[in-house]
Amino acid sequence: MARFNFIELPASDVGVTKSFYSSVFAWELTDFGPSYSCTMTGDVDLGLQGDAAEATRAPLAVIAVDDLEQALAAVEQSGGTITKSIFAFPEAGFHFRDPSGNELAALTGCGKSRGCGLDFSGVLSYHKGKSPRFFLG
Prior knowledge:
Blueprint: E1 3-10, H1 14-25, E2 30-31, E3 36-38, E4 45-49, E5 60-64, H2 68-77, E6 81-87, E7 93-97, E8 103-107, H3 123-127
Parallel strand pairs: 1-4, 5-8
Antiparallel strand pairs: 1-5, 2-3, 3-4, 6-7, 7-8
């Protein structure tokens, strides 16, 4: 069954935003370069995107799906708009807007190594210094 598994927030200052969530909720966030930090609970995690070129305008909710092509077809057939075609880093996914204009992402391959959380091993070496954007290729 498809379910939410990640929420990414645009963050104008990752350090300040990370400190806020750590102080308020006692969340432990892991840095992936200077412009990205996230929780790694393996359940519904939070990402902070500090790279303005990669950040969405609003929080990006990510839905784990079993069949990416089927989900993409269903989005299109049901009146949604694909905003980012299927990509494969680090898990396969795509972005879309629902009929009300909300941008979300669908992700498959989730859960292979840590429940339904993402496996971030190798992220920094793969990006070679670029801002890690977990849902954009």
